[in-house]
Write a structure and sequence with these properties.
Layout: H1 3-40, H2 60-77, H3 93-136
Helix pairs in contact: 1-3, 2-3
Length: about 140
């Protein structure tokens, strides 16, 4: 391998490691921020949830469990109809609308947790690839 190419590989490896480290830090910080923000809302998973009943919502599985319970409660209140299907003068329409917003917000936090974990995971892969690139550029002994 030419010396100029050999010198570029360690540099590329270093850049990939740095990019990976940035992704790991960004993913972890984002995950912690989402958890902290959810926690500050003082949400507790409903007692009739299939899982995590009574737990403080600060993790994706708890947010998902509470979103599912909210959907069930709204479905019961609206006799299986969605907000859009309820008549404008239906007294339950506002409650179902609020339930829909809460459910969507909790599901959005679940997705955000997933994106944060994905970023951190990709960052780890980048670090490993960068280390492998740097190792392949080292002269054989």
């Amino acid at each position: 391998m030419k010396a100029s190419r050999r010198g570029a590989v360690p540099l590329l490896g270093l850049l990939v490691i740095v990019a990976g480290a940035v992704l790991v830090v960004a993913g972890v910080v984002t995950y912690m921020t989402i958890s902290s923000t959810l926690s500050s809302q003082q949400i507790t998973v409903s007692d009739d949830a299939a899982a995590f009943a009574g737990e403080h919502v600060d993790q994706p599985w708890e947010a998902y469990a509470e979103a599912k319970v909210i959907a069930e409660h709204a479905n019961e209140i609206a006799d299986g109809k969605t907000y859009a299907q309820l008549a404008r003068d239906d007294p339950n329409r506002e409650t179902v609308m609020n339930a829909s917003f809460l459910q969507a917000s909790l599901f959005t936090s679940v997705v955000a947790f997933g994106v944060a974990a994905l970023a951190a995971g990709i960052g780890i892969v980048f670090v490993l690839v960068g280390m492998a690139l740097r190792r392949t550029a080292q002269p054989a002994l």
